[in-house]
Write a structure and sequence with these properties.
The chain is an alpha/beta fold. It has a single domain, classed as Spore Coat Polysaccharide Biosynthesis Protein SpsA, Chain A, CATH 3.90.550.10. Helices cover 40% and strands 13% of the residues. Strands 3-2-1-4-6-5-7 form a seven-stranded mixed beta sheet, with helices on both faces. Helix 4 links the parallel strand 1 and strand 2. Helix 8 packs parallel to helix 10. The protein is globular and about 45 Å long.
């Protein structure tokens, strides 16, 4: 004869034990489901944003906006172009600078005593392409031209652009990005990092560049790869704290030593480079290399 099943120990009188057990099991399952429910992860959400998720706009709206890059309003870019005997390239340079992003910018050209017709072009048919023109009666050098251009700049970011087409203005966005993100005070381009194209030219120039950059790094405790590069971008508030003393190509080691002394946040960005030969108008020479060596010592050890 089958045994009778009595109430489970501890069951309330008159309560079906099987019903109680079933209710408790359901409750435990629900609690387990709650515990196992995945939490929204900001890392995963950012990852999906980087991967081009369709929810990008919603994710962006959920994120806190970054702090403003400038205390005095949005980006106002000043491009300073030192120029000496660049009649063959100045028109193209101005056209590409004007067309480059950001479109709103202040273009300042400092003619450093040109005698090949560059000055006449700037005063005549190219005058409307420039916001500010500064003329030197005699050739004073790149450092002197930049000193005058920096003083005339009204933007909150200043970018140095050569007039010889070795550096292309289409790379402005990548040079400005570390400053616009609030991460950098100064940005250097570099011809020796990144995957951009570079014209193959003088071995001894590249060796000299490496030696000067290495010596500069040893004395500034920076790890730059291209101290002598043209493309340098500064917050104007940084330049306002610096007096440029060098008149020629000594500007490069001088400004590097001085921004290092200010403990600026410095970034490097890989850029392309289309160098010129001397037959095509390249001007820097071995004397400038000797001067750069002296300036590294002067502005790091003697000041």
């Amino acid at each position: 004869m089958p045994a009778k099943v009595g109430p489970a120990p501890g069951a309330l009188p008159g309560s079906p034990s099987r019903a109680l057990a079933s209710d408790r099991t359901k409750q435990r399952v629900k609690q387990s489901e709650v515990r196992r429910k995945p939490m929204a992860s900001p890392v995963l959400r950012l990852s999906s944003l980087r991967n081009g998720s369709r929810e990008s706009s919603r994710i962006l709206s959920d994120l806190e906006p970054p702090p403003p890059a400038f205390a005095d309003g949005p980006l106002r870019l000043s491009v300073v172009i030192p120029c000496f005997n660049e009649k063959a390239t100045i028109r193209t340079v101005l056209e590409t600078v004007r067309a480059a992003e950001p479109l709103e910018k202040e273009i300042i050209v400092v003619d450093d005593g040109s005698s090949d017709g560059t000055r006449e072009l700037l005063q005549g048919e190219l005058a409307s392409a420039v916001d500010k023109l500064i003329f030197f009666e005699a050739n004073c050098g790149k450092g002197a031209a930049l000193r005058a251009g920096f003083a005339a700049a009204t933007g909150n970011v200043v970018l140095v652009q050569d007039a010889d087409l070795e550096y292309h203005p289409t790379e402005y966005p990548k040079l400005l990005a570390p400053i616009l993100s609030g991460e950098a005070d100064v940005v250097y381009g570099s011809r020796f990092i990144g995957g951009e194209s570079h014209r193959v030219l003088y071995y001894w120039h590249s060796l000299s560049n490496w030696g000067l950059t290495t010596l500069s790094n040893m004395l500034t405790n920076l790890n730059l790869t291209d101290m002598e590069v043209c493309y340098k971008v500064f917050r104007k508030s940084i330049l306002d704290q610096i007096t440029i003393e060098e008149d020629r190509f000594g500007f490069e080691p001088e400004i590097t030593a001085k921004v290092a002394r200010l403990r600026c946040r410095i970034y490097e960005v890989g850029i392309s480079y289309s160098g010129r030969t001397y037959e095509e108008g390249k001007k820097i020479g071995w004397r400038d290399g000797v001067r750069a060596f002296w300036c590294i010592l002067k502005y790091n050890l003697l000041r």
